Amino acid sequence: MTADAYEIRQCRECGLRYPLVEDHPFGRDCPLCGKETRLILRRELVTGPDHDPAPGQTPAIEALLDNIRSAWNVGSIFRTADGFDIRKLHLCGITPTPESEGVRKTALGAEQSIPWNYHRNALEAVGELKSLGKQLWALEQDARARPIIDLSDLPPDENIVLIVGNEITGVDPEVLDLCDRILLIPMHGSKRSFNVAVAFGIAAYALQTLNRTRS
């Protein structure tokens, strides 16, 4: 089996049906019971077409991760950033970098295509970005927040930095005070917030949609 193909296999003992890709730690033995499996089908891995954004067509969007704890969340954000043309990630505080195996496992190679840097202090990083003329847009439940679904404008000549914060405490309050906009995702149910990687994906999609509408 090559790196650009996969197999669907089924265990002869317990009936588990699962996909097998190259370098699977169980090989062709069942990952559930360890017994022999049989080949059901073999397919090529499907990859999407390459898309190069037209230069100057839309404002550049970057993102800042303020003390994200989970390497898996960070890796997921890298993968989402690649899909939504986020130009750069600023990793701050305790946020794991792609040197972490957990980040690489969930990023699935996106950590190699998205430029990133690391700052120990998110407040200082935000101050530097603001001094460069970046528009700072935080995603947070806050009295000043505006529902992201109400956005109808995207500054055509501004570079935006989308800021997401810690899974428990959110964005640093002093970082929020420096932001040009604070956005929230309206929710139903008993929980007051989405998983940070999910929230990032929703916000990135919303900004991309505004880009397409305006262009």
CATH class group of the largest domain: Alpha Beta
The CATH architecture of the largest domain can be given as 3-Layer(aba) Sandwich
- Largest sheet data: 7 strands, parallel
CATH superfamily of the largest domain: SPOUT methyltransferase, trefoil knot domain
Architecture overview:
This protein has helices at 71-83, 101-107, 122-131, 173-177, 196-214, and strands at 5-11, 17-20, 37-44, 61-66, 89-92, 116-119, 135-139, 146-147, 160-165, 181-184. With 215 residues, the protein is an alpha/beta fold. It folds into 2 domains: 5-44, Rubrerythrin, domain 2 (Single Sheet); 61-214, 3-Layer(aba) Sandwich (Alpha/beta knot). Helix 1 runs parallel beside helix 2 and helix 1 runs parallel beside helix 5. The protein is elongated.
